Amino acid sequence: MWFGIADYGAFVAAIVLFLLLPGPGNLALISSTGKGGVAGGLAATLGVILGDQVLMWLAVAGVAALLLAYPAAFHALQWLGAAYLVWLGTRMLLAKPGSAPILHIRPRHYLQQAFLITLLNPKAIVFYMAFFPLFIDPALHQGAATFGVMALTIASLTFAYGLCVALLTYFFAERLRASPRVSQALGRLAGIFLIGFGVKLVLGK
Questions:
Q1: Which of 165, 180, 6, 157 is nearest to 95 (CA)?
Q2: With CB atoms counted within 10 Å of each terminal CB, which end of the chain scores lower, N or C?
Q3: Is 47:39 a contact under the CB 8 Å cutoff?
Q4: Torsion of Cα atoms, 170 then 171 then 177 then 179, to 10°
Q5: Within 10 A of 25 (CB to CB), how many other CB atoms are there?
Q6: What share of the chain is helix, strand, coil (3-state, %, to 5)?
């Protein structure tokens, strides 16, 4: 237990796994690096971080309000969150590999475009509302400090990940073609991980 976060190691592992999944954010990082070099990739990384922070704190506002005013509702949210993650994980396990969306990244606008791509993901805030409660112990929760540590952890891991993607893309661009087989394997691994978190919550952590 660290700053009211239950199983901090598992929390970090989950974030790392989610960062590895192919999606609009990863495509924005790779496209920005391809056009603007490492500096373009880092600018896009900051855009992703800013978008994530906005969505996270919107989710935090809802979770914190329930935790403070309606403890029973917070526990209900945990159960709903567990059901949502199991459903999402099952969809990932059954998903078939498909073509990735094409992003039109304009030069010199890497941060703004990555920010909007992240912010306009309609499923992100729902995911955070389901994800955060899994790692919160109401008895040991420390208010904004707990959520602040979670947000800082995600931002730090995202920056480190974005830096690695930018460097790899810059130096090995021709060899970093997305593999449908690898993408599908990562998706299924994430699905198993999500189902595991959901079951863990139902069984009382």
A1: 180
A2: N
A3: no
A4: -110
A5: 27
A6: 80, 0, 20
* CB of 136 closer than 8 Å to CB of 77: no
Longest dimension (CA), the chain: 54
Q: By three-state DSSP, how is residue 100 classified?
A: coil
| E strands in the chain | none
Stated pTM of the model:
0.69
Structure tokens at 166: 């930018």
Amino acid letter, 190: A
User: What pLDDT was estimated at residue 161?
Assistant: 94
**How many Å apart are CA 203 and CA 205, to the nearest integer?**
6
What is the mean pLDDT for each group of 10 consecutive residues in the chain (205 residues)?
A: 75 84 75 84 93 84 68 68 73 64 65 82 68 73 78 94 89 57 63 71 59
Distance CA 176, CA 183 (A): 12
Q: How many residues are recorded in the chain?
A: 205
Angle between helices 71-94 and 124-131 (to 10 degrees): 120
Q: How many CB atoms lie within 10 A of CB 61?
A: 10
Rounded Cα distance between 141 and 150, Å, is: 12
CA angle 134, 140, 146 (to 5 degrees): 65
Q: In a 10 Å sphere around its CB, with 0-12 CB exposed, 13-18 middle and 19+ buried, how is residue 6 labelled?
A: middle
